Fold each of these.
Amino acid sequence: MTWKPLEAPGVAKSLHLVPTSNTNNLSWAAPVASERQAKVRFYAIYRVQAAKEPFWLDAIQDGKNLLAVTGSTQYQDRSIIDGQQYWYAITSVSGNSIESLPSSFAPLSTKIQAVRRDFGIREVFPNPFTQELHIRYSIGAPGTLSLRIYNLLGEEVVNLVDEERKAAGDYEAVWVPNAAAKTGLYICVLEVDRQRMVHKVVKAP
């Protein structure tokens, strides 16, 4: 709609990373409010696994690099793998889903025991969707699995699979939104033994 403001929020500042034994802890400062910039409604956290600093535009345009969305200025990344180099960046997002430029990428290496890699969201359809969303996913070996949908405020909308022990194989879940579900962007999060994969989905009018 043309009447909606298209200004982006300010850029998040001072991204700070603190590793622990199995978690990377992120914190940052909210942008300074300005009349010429939109208000921040939430933050998008991007993570790239690479030896060298990624180009910011490529990084944020690739959906697989979206780690999470949150209304807070802190986040704990528990889905890290032993011996990997990660680069994190934060964008501010307005209520109209207009993203700011990202913060500077900050690197962090991990020194934990290796965890699960043999799982994934294989297909999400239709996307965009109107009445129901099918999510096909797989797991290569037995594990404890959860599958949840979040809105752009980081709030859980539905819990499709709740910490269930699953055998290796292919699975499918279906989300049928209730009447309260608004149109717009949602985040599908698959978690297996504390490792995460996320996928953006869009609910159409």
Note: The chain is about 5% helix and 50% strand.
Amino acid sequence: MRSGITYAYDSKSHWDKEKQQSRSTQHLIGRVDPVTGEIVPTDGRNRKAKAKQPVKPSQDFSHKYYGATYLLTQLAVKTGLAQDLQACFGNLTDMILSIAEYLVLELESTLCRFNHWQKPHVHPANQPIFSQQSNDLLGQITKSQITDFFRRQSKSRP
């Protein structure tokens, strides 16, 4: 008991072979509440426990490759390729450009690997194109659209 306050300690004894005597160590657990008799944890210096800093939630970051696809998209726009695709294929243009850029950049890969490739790359479609969608896309393109596209391309070339 110090200054009228009763403290609770954890005491452990052990035998010191060298000095041939018993030794004990005490660790303060806390003070005994005089009203309830319960042990209230304390650090023994009458300090309040420091408020823990709230853990900031980690931010999710993503890394996407943009350079090569940006270059190919700009080439398609500047050469008139994107405009001709838009005129012939309408709302399929971005999907066609995305798949074409994939096939140019990944020469050895097959179309079934496109789904894996598109996750870390920015591409004109700017949304996931699933395997079934790419198959449907190829089925939607008609011979007359292809003929019209090449006719437009031949007119724009010297």
Note: The beta strands are 7-16, 21-32, 39-41.
